[in-house]
């Protein structure tokens, strides 16, 4: 009955008990706590193989061996069980529940979403205030110091002070990330994308990750890196959602005994999408943008009631942030400027655009696409390099510190050698105007871009009056910041790429605007540099991350003016089309580098000739309705397979070995059954035994114990287990002739984890899992099969 | 084999050949060309039965009989085949197609979306210009007349002139709708909702409907009815999309031989959603709102590439409208104020809101919900009345004319008796300031609300400075306009309810603001009446139509300022919650009144105890792989059943009558096969016979001939047909124990039309269609089964 020749599902069970869980780091850095034991059956896996750049060609086999331990991706991705297991227990519970019960559940969902929004907003507020104050102190100290030494000479001391301060902040941030929770590195958006796609990345929604993420992002932004605090907000929102919706913290061993109904993947994933939306909403003050972000990333499994709840969470999140910041800013109750980043208000009169500007916008979009692709390719190479050579935590911390110090040095050099002095107007809004070598009443224009938090620099580029920057300043700034940002993304610090992208784009956009104004006779009327800065920012960001719909709305909401809706859309679409021609978006690159079985939107176009028979994993390990405990334990203990779902079959009379499918049972369910010793014999002898309830499954969720921790005696191995009550009696099945696109559609639309393939007699012939579908993709030479994380 | 005891699918085939096609009118009016012959098997069906108000209780049986013919809903709703029939022809074509071929298809899709956007924008532009000019002439003439008679007395002549002009315009609009294309009545939004939901409403996307709709809406707005031109734009966009995407016009008998690949329901529906979005986008200048509208209404079957194309269509649509209007307004190229309705710019300084205003907004939302519910209930009763008594076209035209005349009379009376005179400022933006009995240099304030197109009135309410209206004027206006709008919606004219709703809300919102300012000591600072007018407008509109997400974005985009995003969201959510407590949204009421099998988002919460076995239709008419032509013709000709899909089965050896399912074939496919005489015997005799291709099916789409029009001789009846090549070999199946929510989820997520229910041996036991699922809904006493359109 139990044929095990090929993996049919992928899980970490074996690894967890064996060599310790590994965390895949989608920012490209690598954890060091790897295990040396490689499974024999092709578990070794080279990253180079799935990339467009084949790295192995120029390596000797020694080199290959030496980095095996790093390159092997024995990561522990699991699929989410988005399909409810409608077993008898579940149906009984649902049937017992009254209409009022369902109403209560619905209200709970709204309450949870409100809580998620509130807490996410609160976290955003804390981050903002902390960053403002830390960066304020830092810039104040450095400014004092520079002013002191400008006259007397010895500015190198100021430089050292600045660099040391930066490196110190960055060090703290890097240490907590590298040593305590590597999963908190990067922006977290790739991880959340994967989660919403249906892949569970270990430890990504834990409390510890949240704490490290929040502290990390404060340190890295205060440390003056070319990073933003917006990406991490999205991750934070998701963690908050995963925590709040479960009514308990597994890490803190605290169970509030509430929201127990929601302790399953189906419900949790819904809340996580609300959390991500709340994060976007808090980061950019863009509640609708947040909803669209969740939609764009988690486009399948969508429903309308969920959309409304997500919307509610986003709304509360912006509102909370807004409210607390208004109190902090001593204007309590003034709620008109939400979001961590505020692009400032674009006044309508100055921003009107004209038809003949549209081609210019499209050109800028294309430029953004090109620059974005360049950014992504450089970052890809850098990430490959990091995966190979910078994988120890201490090395990672040192690299981060180095980047921090270099950022300060480069900034200082740029400011020092710049001679772009601007008059300090009466309505001067510069926070730290550096006079340096400028005349009295003037300030160094380069410093407004470098000597500031990136958010403020963006705002200056958008809103400072024409003439605030000269073209040379802008081009130098663009050039240096581009490479700094590219180097920074993927460091072992918690940081986002949104703001640096916007900043690069705003700089060259403004440059473009200035040049345009200079070549047109009376161009100053329509070539407002701030407008072009905004368009450039959109183009650059679009070229790097390749989102369109949600990004348009986010930009529109952040500028507080819909006039630019159309040009921003056009620019983002152009940037996406141009960029996609060269390379994927930054997040997708990092997802691919980890060979996450990420399901794209549709099956590859030319895959109609593939059928379920060719795609599926076969033969499949099946169980009988009433199965011997020993068999079950043996199958579950088999570390070389780690199946996660098992069809339950009824043997066919005229027996060949495959039975008719009558259900599907999950590893997690079997584990709980074994733990509670739900054996037929015991039930007979102990008549009063408590019946297993759904609660027992929910209590074990989401960290089901590994099979090794469950003791089954030799006597018990001879017992029988009746699976009928616990299996899902109506798993989705497809005939084996079904085409891949059809299978894909079913799988993706319903968010399945296992799809049973049957023959015309309803006998099990195979099982389709996420990995079977994710490995096909459309390459340059038609359909290609790629290798995915081996787990 | 062919057991026909219960209807398993619903179609119009029989009716088309029999008593003439009937058009369901979702605006509540009724077509007169009904047929008297009622089918014996319960085809009679009372509307009252499915409504919350049981109308039959107070009627004698005579009365019931006398209106039978009106009440019988033998409408012709068909389901869309959103699931591709992946038969051998299709798979062969897909396999033959190269990667480049798919690229070309993708590009075609973008081109079509661009065209849809362009044409929709153009239509919007025509409507706008026509309405502006016609209304301009009308108001000019009436104003001249009033001014002439104000001094000398005899204003009743002016009144008559106004009433006659109104009635004349309305008459033209009503005549073309009532006599030529009743499907063009109303806003068209319910029809588009149904279409996106997967129900095909006959004639709803035809060219004739578009022409009548456009002319109709021009007449009704110019005729001074309490209507808007925005709803019809959405319908127009959808029709444009359905036409353009097919590359031919069936009505005009013109085939451009392009886009043939898209001639099937799957593709067409995608384009229609883009068209609807383009319509919204053109109507409100809200491209993102348009996308969200399509999302909110067609939430299932969603995918991301489609979203982007819809976005593109919306963008082009706004852009086109904007561009042509800018030329018309003599400011070519100035693209900064898009949309048919423009709420005018809310300047940021004047519109800041504060925390303590939030409760006020929520109160206004609740008020909007209440008033909306009242509006809906009144309109519901009115619609019932109309269905019973006003069902002849001439009666309908007369009612419309009456409403037109009454609107003029009431307006005139209100203006006449109003003594709210306001000084005519230097920056006066009134288009037709009526002095009437006011002093020189003053104008009648009531006239700005009544003597104007509703769009302009809305803008005046939003933007006129505080003090422009006195409270009495506003309350009288609210009261009269509320009832006028309620009476107007459902008339046999082409018109929307968005603008009247906004206008009512703006009026009482402004009133609220004024009252607020008067009771607060120095309230004038924050209680800007324009702000409250906006909130009131959102509340009222939300209370009537109950959309949240899309409406928020539409409102935000139309005001051109995101500051109000949060309050508008809150208000819309509150209005929805409060309103839903009493009655459904206006569109849903009208959909329900036509008993359209509309699938809601999710299965009713308490339906877990229902299984596929109880829900399905059984027994099912099945065919063999190789079936006798006579049998097929007989089944298709059976007018009492009108099945649309037939499982194809392989007989089981130990035969009871049900075979194992091996495919599914549609009526439309069988019709084409019969028409081309694809019989086994003929194929043998005529070896060179052209093989049937997908093109033959596409050419017949979407108006497949009725079976009666196909002549099959007695000899041919004895031939056999091989269905193997044409059937869908892998239809989705579910076991009969599957719970209703699970069936529902599968059905809705994949947009199915037929779902085969099988037993454990894979034998057909039943068929689930849209109607089987749509009839369950959650009533006040738990799960209720309702009766749906009998076809």
UniProtKB/TrEMBL annotation, chains A, B:
Domain (CBS): residue spans on this chain: 727-785
GO cellular component: lysosomal membrane
Membrane-related topology note: Multi-pass membrane protein
SMART domains: CBS
Region named Disordered: 1-26
Xref: PROSITE patterns: CBS
Keywords (A to Z) from UniProt: CBS domain, Chloride, Ion transport, Membrane, Repeat, Transmembrane, Transmembrane helix, Transport
Gene3D superfamilies named in the record: CBS-domain, Clc chloride channel
PANTHER family reported for this sequence: CHLORIDE CHANNEL PROTEIN CLC FAMILY MEMBER, H(+)_CL(-) EXCHANGE TRANSPORTER 7
Protein name per its UniProtKB record: Chloride channel protein
